[in-house]
Amino acid sequence: MIAESATTPVLEARQVRKTYRRGAIATEVLKGVDLTVARGEFLSVVGASGSGKSTLLHLLGTLDQADGGEVRLDGERIDNAGARRRDRLRNQAFGFIFQFYHLLPELSALENVLTPLYIASSAWAWPFRRADAVRRARALLERVGLGHRLDHKPRELSGGEMQRAAIARALISGPRVLLADEPTGNLDEDAGAEIARLLRALNAEEGLTIIMVTHNLDMARSTDRVVRLTHGRVDLSPTVLGNRPAPGGYHSPNDGGDRLSLDRRPASMAVLGAGASPPAHPEVFGVGHFPQR
Q1: CA distance between the termini of the chain
Q2: How far is residue 6's CA from residue 136's CA, in Å, rounded to a whole number?
Q3: How far apart are CA 258 and CA 226, in angstroms?
Q4: How far apart are CA 273 and CA 214, in angstroms?
Q5: In this structure, how many other beta carbons lie within 10 angstroms of the beta carbon of residue 140?
Q6: H or E element that contains 97
Q7: Can you tell me the distance from the alpha carbon of 279 to that of 98, in angstroms, rounded to the nearest whole number?
């Protein structure tokens, strides 16, 4: 059981390294990253394409495994957890949203949001849990502004609506950390601004910890802290983005970014596989298959 503490970082990377290999060619993507994330913090990770931003996010969320170093959730090491443990973490401790939504096209918005709960339940228990799960899913879709789109399939939704449905799906299990990989990268300016406002509200009003990879520097500027990756390492030089104050003033001298002051603000289905390309598959929900009906 992972113990929670106000003084323990919710998520921490220690000297994390990752190299991808194709034949005789080895590409070192992360070269010893240290990162500490406070509970309730909204952190942006920026950097040039190929700097390792998405790789870091996948390692933090156990979608992939590091070649070296450690990842800790509430003080407990998780990077070396077994497959079943990682499945549970992805299903319950982490929520994921991606640039291309990864909604299952044959399911309605409501059914997509229910998917993580359905996967986490046994086939015999689901009929007894379904009514409560549906109430929770409906409430989340109302929260993200899709109460009128419950029965619509992804092809009937706009890009911004699909991303809001994906956010509701990411929140349905009550995650400790929301991991967002370019959440506005596939949206127009207005839809992107709506998603940015929604994420800021979830963080400010509900204390949700969010780690977001983005190329949008305006969006990054509105978060608590910005960490820049350069050539696979955290760039410790002062950032010029002008971050907002972060909750509780938590700051590690090793994790980069700047902080100005103290302030406490209230798919398609595919098989599991480490090192897979940006995931459009069920490990983002926590397992590699649906239970039989």
Answers
A1: 30
A2: 27
A3: 7
A4: 25
A5: 21
A6: strand 94-98
A7: 8
Residue 285 reports pLDDT greater than 60: no
Q: Indicate the burial class of 240 (C-beta count within 10 angstroms; 0-12, 13-18, 19 or more).
A: exposed
Question: Two tokens at 42?
Answer: 């909204």
Query: 235, 191, 189: which is closest to 45 by C-alpha?
Result: 235
Are 138 and 150 spatial neighbours (Cβ–Cβ below 8 Å)?
yes
Look at residue 288 and tell me whether its pLDDT is greater than 90. Answer: no
41 Cβ neighbours under 8 A, 6+ residues apart: 10, 209, 210, 224, 225, 246, 247, 250
Q: Which residues contact 27 (CB under 8 A, 6 or more apart)?
A: 19, 20, 21
| Burial of 162 per CB tally in 10 Å (0-12, 13-18, 19+) | buried
Cβ contacts of residue 240 below 8 Å, gap of 6+? none
**pLDDT tens profile 135-192:** 999 999 999 999 999 999 999 999 999 999 999 999 999 999 999 999 998 888 898 9
Find where tokens 């929260």 sit.
Answer: 143
Q: How far is CA 275 from CA 18, 55, 279, in A?
A: 10, 9, 9
pLDDT at 64: 93
**Cβ-proximal residues to 24 (8 Å cutoff; 6+ apart), any chain:** none
Read off the pLDDT of each residue in 112-126 and give the average, rounded to a whole number. Answer: 92
Number of H helices, E strands in the chain: 7, 12
**pLDDT, tens only, 209-257:** 999 999 988 899 999 999 999 989 998 766 545 555 444 333 333 344 4
Q: Which two tokens stand for residue 53?
A: 């931003």
* Residue 160 CB neighbour total at 10 angstroms: 20
At position 161, the amino acid (one-letter code) is E
- How far is Cα 120 from Cα 55, in angstroms, rounded to an integer? 26
